[in-house]
């Protein structure tokens, strides 16, 4: 028996889509180029391949559909019946039958045309045959349009059916519409069934799960049933009847005591009598719902007699109200217990039990003498148990104090100290007293312990525990160490040697360079003297650009005109022009230069390159340029 | 687990998203642009198919628009004009002369006579021997070339047995033997798949007729007992002639029209 998963049925495409899909697949997945001058066997093979490919595709897809859809004979009769009610067994079988026929027809067409193609002696003839074959297959599918549509709808509905396990513990709710079945299931499980004041709000089965006694229980909510004969029932009611008929569950017959559902009590009882045959072999509980509006005790005599009659027959009647939640838990426990007992009974009566019973054996220890040996329970446990029951106040915990005091709370462990003089608890402990270190006297035996420790240490040292381990290294390591030693010595020698070389004399540190600039550059006095000798007027040249300003002045200047370089205002000897403005005329140029520099860096930064010389390509053979057919576009961009 | 109609239930409880209707309206507004963009960018076979389909759609749209327009405008009523009415500029012409009437009558009679032998496919391209029969070389050195294989579809009768292979001159391969034909009744316009009884005449050559080669224009005899035709005298007709209207070797099936 194949395992069906209603939620995993393949999508059934519509006829048009199916045809488009398969034909475009054939066009894409088979070779497309053929010429007249090729050898005839090659031409034949080319076209035969297309015919076979199409046939194969159709066959596969249709087989997939046929296997995925459940066979009504293979699934649990509950589901078979439910599907019959919802989708009409005949129509369903017919549709699947049609699909099967179509599949066979397509196979035959494929076979025939491949056979014919062997006699094709020209490209034109083979091409026409292929065209005829594909056309025929597509016509067959076109004729199945209705079946495919129907199956798609069935699939969609089937995947949304609630997964009800027919074999596990189940509670089934039934009754007239609007009596409170959906409210009950909402209360007891996490199912969120719609509850509305109009009848037939619930139009199909809903399932919810709950836990009781460490077991999982299913609760199935059904649409309401009206009181008419079986033949007159519509699809919605039939679903409820199917559930009642096939699920071995505890039945909760919900009645509305207050008659708010629109049906009188007598009608409800009448319905109960009518569907009683469906309750055979099932534990039954009558739930008198909406008792917050009207209690059974408030009812008139005749109605109360009905309930008494029920009790007399052996069905327990429980009053509930889903609004105030009274009695709901009671119903649940009662129903679950009854069902469990029933299931155990059935299992005991069945055949399988014997196999297990033979192997079960409860071993009781045999008494060796007549002495009574009671279990030992210490006093404290008994007291605690009593306390738990009596609910005596426990001692106040630190946590409680913390919560009370809120922000003021300070952890004060000193209050628990056990001292001879309890008033000394909060005294400050001094560190030195009368010239002695207090910590030395904490322990009366401290001196003795210290001596012992020291002796131990000496022993250890004598034993050689602290000696460094003998070199467990092998020859290689020894060699390496030797070599390293030699290298170090050589290095030192080289340094000394190079120091001795002294090719350029003692080197000045760079900081001293500034002072030497003065000697290398031309002095102001010398310059002016030479110029006057040549005939230039060199008076009043205090503001000239070559005049060396004192540092503070130049510094101030620099700060005032923040970015103006004004190489005019600076003489070379005092301060060097910063590198980013050297060689530039004016502010405009500086700005331009800065923007140019940033622009040049943009591309680099965006591509994550290390610098302008980084030309590394991370992916020399990108897949999108080299793989696949050249459909539209060139190799550069495909 | 989401059960039964959980989507509708959610919609009823929580309504739609705040921008749902706006989004939907805008999406529908965008449809036309998307479609035109797709149509412009598509290339290849996909585009051909799409454009063909779209063309058909557009024709339909235009027809409906035209119909709506017609409904709103007034049109000339053809029934009101009496028969034989002639526009003003033709009033001066003479009616048909008697001689003309007579000659027309004779021509009509001649046509009817010829019509007895009228067939749906009057003219066919003649098939040469090289086309229909392929030379098969036999012998130890493949020198002998007296055997021929039929390359077209043929029909062999029920009790057909081959001549011993050494002596058979014309080979009719089994793959090309057909027994049934799709016959269309010209008046009923219905097509039936009827068994062939025999080949009556092949227009290209009497040799083909004897061989049973079926090409376009061949007249074949089909078993029409399925149709349940009855003669005037009450006898059941079970064989009728039909003419082949397609090239069976290219299509893999024989399509014929019944000669009534």
UniProtKB/TrEMBL annotation, chain A:
Domain of life (superkingdom): Eukaryota
Organism: Chordeiles acutipennis
GO annotations of cellular component type: nucleolus
Name of protein: GTP-binding protein 4
Classification of source organism: Eukaryota, Metazoa, Chordata, Craniata, Vertebrata
PANTHER family the UniProt entry points to: NUCLEOLAR GTP-BINDING PROTEIN 1
InterPro entries xref list: G_OBG, GTP-bd, NOG1, NOG1_N, NOG1_Rossman_fold_dom, NOG_C, P-loop_NTPase, Small_GTP-bd
SUPFAM superfamilies associated with the record: P-loop containing nucleoside triphosphate hydrolases
Keyword Transmembrane helix found: no
Cell location: Nucleus, Nucleolus
Biased composition (Basic and acidic residues): 577-590
Name of the encoding gene: Gtpbp4
From TrEMBL, chain B:
Domain of life of the native organism: Eukaryota
Keywords for the protein's UniProt record, in alphabetical order: Nucleus, Ribonucleoprotein, Ribosome biogenesis, rRNA processing
Region (Disordered): 18-44
A GO BP entry: ribosomal large subunit biogenesis
InterPro entries hit by this protein: NSA2_fam, Ribosomal_Se8/biogenesis_NSA2
Presence of keyword Protease: no
Composition bias type Basic residues, residue spans: 35-44
Gene Ontology terms: cellular component: nucleolus; preribosome
Any matching Pfam family: Ribosomal_S8e
Transmembrane region(s): none
Annotated localization: Nucleus, Nucleolus
Biased composition range(s): Basic and acidic residues: 18-34
Presence of the UniProt keyword ATP-binding in the record: no
Similarity comment: Belongs to the eukaryotic ribosomal protein eS8 family. Ribosome biogenesis protein NSA2 subfamily.
Role description: Involved in the biogenesis of the 60S ribosomal subunit. May play a part in the quality control of pre-60S particles.
Subunit architecture: Component of the pre-66S ribosomal particle.
Protein name: Ribosome biogenesis protein NSA2 homolog
Gene: Nsa2
